[in-house]
Amino acid sequence: MGVTSGRRSVLPGFGPTLGFTVFYLSLVVLIPLSALFLKSASLTWSELVAAVTSPRVVASYRVTFGCALLAAMVNGVCGVLVAWVLVRYRFPGRKVVDALVDLPFALPTAVAGITLSSIYASNGCLGRHLERWGIEVAFKPLGIMVAMVFIGLPFVVRTVQPVLEDLDQELEEAACCLGAGRFDTFRRVLLPLILPATITGFALAFARAVGEYGSIIFIAGNMPMVSEITPLLIVTKLEQYDYAGATAIATVMLAVSFLLLLSINLLQRWSRRFSS
Amino acid sequence: MSIAIEKVWKSFGGVPAVKGVSLPVPSGELVALLGPSGSGKTTLLRVIAGLERPDSGRVFFDGEEATFRAVRERKVGFVFQHYALFRHLTVFDNIAFGLAVKPRKVRPGKREIAEKVNALLKLIQLEQMADRYPAQLSGGQRQRVALARALAVEPRVLLLDEPFGALDARVRQELRRWLRRLHDDLKITSVFVTHDQEEALEVADRIVVMNEGEIEQEGTPLEVYDHPATPFVFDFLGKVNLFRGRASHGRFPAGEPPVPGLLPSLKLPKLCPASFRDVDIEHQPVDDRAVPAKVSFLLPVGPLVRVELVFDGFDSSLELDLPRDTADRLALRVGDVVFALPKQVESVTGDYQI
């Protein structure tokens, strides 16, 4: 026993596994990201500020983060609903529906984008009818949201589903015996218990939507100031050989995403404060 | 409130769990449903609570039919084996739950709720734990919280499903006595399910022994213990040594222990099991009813010594617990031949498979 030996875990291999984790994270995540920061550092401070705060860029932040947030909210509600139906009820075709949920994961995003824009376009099968009511989806921010909802759905369903499956039926029976109605049981017993998983799913769907490129550029119309997303702006800058400008915007995106995910994590910690 | 169950049947996927059970539970009594797992006792309890709907038969509360009454309108307190506490709520909020979900018109005010919850916390001796979450409590504490939560809504009936089943032996003993005292104070009609005969004998006013979806016997603990009605009850209640033999004119055949006080029907030659409840052991035959036996096994268990005796000509052996001082006085060793004198012999007729 050396002087340094503190509390030792019974599980062996802490040293090697932590070493590997740090190495792997560095290789896959940290090194590419630091290269990003280094590249954007080739700009002077005022150049950097100018690059990331030009009106067109700021508008793209608003579109990207705004739509992603809204899409994640829609998915947060509808995803829980889909998970609920899949877990709670037995109906013919349940397995098929269950498999359908994963489809947005598997489909190449460009295919999703082309499909969505063709059905929501003003001559598409859905877009035609929506246009009659004055709702335009394709080539508008709404279209961006539709694409983001599409690709984000599996995240919420797949994180909430196992938690719902594990919920003890006795909890509902206990609530029922204590006089709680269906709505009170859901609001006071079930919802708080699936909330942490829902927040995780929300965060994942949000992160995915912020980073999404392939499907959105087909349906967005990509009009500067209106429906242009930040990832597209970065690609545009790269095509113009403005590497420093592209990385500067990317750095801002990265920082904002990180902050948002961090705060979602804190929110989640609060939501599971009861499990010590 | 009194409960009456009339010819209740319930099956799951074609397998009957409760087969036409009728049972009255008088107001204010503490009744134990005792039986092995799969005997239908929990199903019966859930039928009373309304958590299961019987296939046929009826349930009455205070003479009023309640078979189709919704669970939340029955005003039953239900305590689950694994507590079913709301783990996202503090102990305080768990107990307050039933009050907080009452319709606005009849819901007590915040201060009233707090007073009531604090009184219940005092009752379960967990006043210090009000702000803890269930995950921070021990098993015994959790079960007490579950009980307080059920009592908070002032149920007319308290139903407990294996309430102490998941606790260790010491806590179980403690809670058992506590439940008994609580019942004596509150006088609330209670039904609890258990597979532990000792628990049923110690806590209940009346015991209902169930087996394979049917009631085998019901009565006070003493009645059931002293006069078991069927071989099953016999076997299930406590440490009973069963002997199977063909009784003839009130006696087992030559060389086998005579059986005093048998039922008249047993005088006919037939196969019947008999059991020894308490057996005296001596080195010398003190009575002409004493039977020679050989000590085949000895094991000190706490204050007792477990002794196994084998008799010539019997396939089953006799296992009994002697107080340590008696065993010391006799200085028993494996292989000793002793004389066993049954103090009480019970016999049971019936379709007993041998």
Characterize the structure shown.
Chain A has 276 residues and is mainly alpha-helical. Chain A has one domain (51-275): MetI-like fold, CATH 1.10.3720. In chain A, 76% of the residues lie in helices and 0% in strands. Chain A is built from 13 helices and no strands. Chain B is 26% helix and 32% strand. Chain B contains 9 helices and 18 strands. Chain B has helices spanning 41-49, 91-100, 110-123, 139-152, 169-186, 197-203, 221-226, 231-236, 324-330; strands at 3-12, 15-25, 30-34, 56-61, 64-65, 76-79, 157-161, 189-194, 206-211, 214-219, 241-247, 270-276, 279-282, 291-301, 304-310, 318-323, 337-342, 345-347. In chain B, a hairpin with a 2-residue loop joins strand 14 and strand 15 (304-310). Chain B is globular. The chains are: A mainly alpha (276), B alpha+beta (354). The A-B interface holds A 168, 170-171, 173-181, 184, 188-189, 192-193, 274-276 and B 49, 51, 71-72, 75-78, 80, 82, 84-89, 97-98, 100-102, 133-136, 149-150, 152-153.
Which keywords apply here?
heterodimer; A: 276 residues; mainly alpha; MetI-like fold; 13 helices; disordered N terminus; B: 354 residues; alpha+beta; six-stranded mixed sheet; five-stranded antiparallel sheet; 32% strand; disordered C terminus
Write the SSE topology.
The complex is a heterodimer of chains A (about 280) and B (about 350).
Chain A: H1 14-40, H2 45-53, H3 55-88, H4 94-101, H5 103-106, H6 109-120, H7 127-132, H8 141-166, H9 169-177, H10 182-211, H11 216-220, H12 230-239, H13 243-271
Helix pairs in contact in A: 1-13, 3-8, 3-10, 6-8, 8-10, 9-10, 10-13, 12-13
Chain B: E1 3-12, E2 15-25, E3 30-34, H1 41-49, E4 56-61, E5 64-65, E6 76-79, H2 91-100, H3 110-123, H4 139-152, E7 157-161, H5 169-186, E8 189-194, H6 197-203, E9 206-211, E10 214-219, H7 221-226, H8 231-236, E11 241-247, E12 270-276, E13 279-282, E14 291-301, E15 304-310, E16 318-323, H9 324-330, E17 337-342, E18 345-347
Parallel strand pairs in B: 3-8, 3-9, 6-7, 7-8
Antiparallel strand pairs in B: 1-2, 1-4, 4-5, 9-10, 11-12, 12-18, 13-17, 14-15, 14-17, 15-16
